[in-house]
Structure formats: structure tokens, C-alpha cells
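In response to reviewer comment 3 from the previous cycle, which asked for concrete evidence that the modeling workflow produces usable outputs, we include below a single protein chain processed end to end. The sequence was submitted unchanged, and the resulting C-alpha cells are shown without manual editing.
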Amino acid sequence: MPWWGACASTGGNEMDLQGIVQRYRERLAAGYGSGLTPDQWSALNAIEGCRQGRYGELVLHCEDCRQRAYIPRSCGHRACNQCQYHQAQAWLQRQRQKQLPVDYFMVTFTLPAELRPLARRQPRAVYAALMRCAAETLKRFGLNKNGFNAELGLCAVLHTHSRRLDYHPHVHVVVPGGGIHRARREWRQLKGGYLFNGRALASAFRGAMLKALDEAGLKLERTPKRWVAQCQTVGRGTQALQYLARYLYRGVISNRQIVEDDGEYVTFRYRDSKTGDWKTRRERGEVFLYLVLLHVLPKGLRRARDYGFLHGNARPLLKVVQWVLRVVLPKPRPKPVPTCRHCGGPMVLQGFQPEWPRPG
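The workflow returned the following C-alpha cells.
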């Protein structure tokens, strides 16, 4: 959807997230308000005020017929499901510029259930440790793999939710099936459609996480016994990156997933990860909002990070790899240009109106 189309006001319909916030906000405050963080309140306020005039409006000018258009600004919050479509597409486009003609793998590291209360209390420290330890574990395995012994490139994205919106912190890491042997200055490609053993990854990840939490001064009531790391092939990586881009900037649930709001309960649908079938979950309106707010990240915490030869600082090295593998990069898509509703001509951004509705 072009950004100017996405900026149109939804009016807070009952069947979208914004309308549900407006309807159940008081009940959420009464039931859960004392436990919400400033970041969660900020997200709630942003979702409620998105494209409602609270953030002013953009002024567009048609170069042909001289007509003007006034578009209420979006909130720009990454927890809002109406915002940042362009940012998500821009991230996906940047990742496609880094793709290689090799098989890809997706490795998922899950935070054990026993550590989730700690993550709720100390999200910044635990999430940062989770992403760092996942990356360090994979890099170490790449360097130590017999016959490979190469530096991997990693694209890691933090998720805190299950498809049912339960609190379930985990990191997805997309890994190209090859690496760089720096001593010999050569590209080494993995063969056989296999990356690493999941149990061995989980064991190493366990040690790295426990050490990181201890160094951060976070004491554990008990040490989890079950640690999970899953490794699977994902073809050439395009679908995996599209999946990750879906939740990077546009919240954890789309308006299309909300199927009913009867004034007391909200019902939403989700796709079962095991069967692939669509299922529904029904919760009181304030409980539904609380589930959504559970996944608001601390301000400034980066959800997506690149490592190894995919890191931004390693761009010259990546270009050498792409030259060796004879990669033909896709052409960047041009930014969409808004068109006038009266004559169809191009419109340009003329300014910003801080007050809305317009005076007079």
C-alpha cells in the first residue's frame, strides 16, 4: 500500500485495534494500569491517536491542478499496526540486497519458560543477552565446524510473542549457507542441506545465556533444564525474510486477524504453527489489549540486528563475496509518488500542519 493511502484515517472502527483501544482503555487501566510500564502506556497512546489529528497533518500540493490534500500524520510507533509499512519494506529491500545464491537456514533460540518472569522484569538486559548469545553461539559453531571453519553472516530478529499472543521470547536467525575463511581468504559453501545439530546448539546457548545473566547481575531462582534451539532449511531465504519483516514495525497483530468485538469480548484468529490451520482465541477486551501490550519493547531496543559479513560495517567484504558468487542484485524499488484525487497528477509534500482540525 502506498504511504499516502495508508495515512487515511480509519476513524477508530470497532473491528480494528485502534477502535478496541478506544473502547476498552478504561477497563484496561482499571485492571492492569498499575502494572503497565511507561513504554506500554506510550504505545497505547500512540495507537489511539494514530491518524486522528493528534500528531498534526501533512500538506500535499498537486503540481498540475494546484489542489491541496491534508493527511493526518501517523504515530510512527513500531507497536502500531497501521504504521511504518514503508520502513518494513525498506528493511526487506536492504536484506534482499545482501542475499546470496545459496541455501538458507533459520535457527530459532527460545528463552526457557522459567526465565520469562525475569525477562518481564528486566526486558532490556534479558533481550539484549538473548540476541547476543544466539549470535555468539552460531558464530562459534561456524568457526568450529569440521571442514568448514568459516565466519557466518547472520540476520537476527527478536520476537516476544507466540501466534496466540502469549509471552514467548525467542530469536529467529536467518543464516546463509556459507561463510568466509579469513586465513585462506576464500568463500566456503555448506553442502548437504544441514547446518548444525539443534541439541548441541541448545547446550552451548544455555551456557552462554547463564554466563551473560550472571555477568549482568541477574540472579536466577532456579536454572532451567530444558533449552530449545531449532534449525531448519528455508530455501533461498526470501520467504523467511518476508516473515520476519511482517512483525518488525507493524505490531504483533493485524486488523485482518480481528474477527469479532461484541462489546465485551474480542476474538482474533491465528494460524496454528503445527497444523497450519486457522484457529481463534476469545478474550475480554481489556485482556486482549494487555496481551498486545506485553510485546512492547523498551524504547531504543533494536529488534533486528546483523552480524558477521552481513553487518553494515562489513559491506565491502560482502560485495567481494557477491562478486565471487556472481550475484545479480535486484534493482531497488522507487518510492511511490502520491497522485492527486482530482486530476491524477503527481503531488509533492509542501509542509506540515501541527494543528488539526485546521483552524477556520
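Residues 150 and 181 are 5 Å apart (CA to CA). We consider this sufficient to address the reviewer's concern, and the full set will be provided in the supplementary archive.
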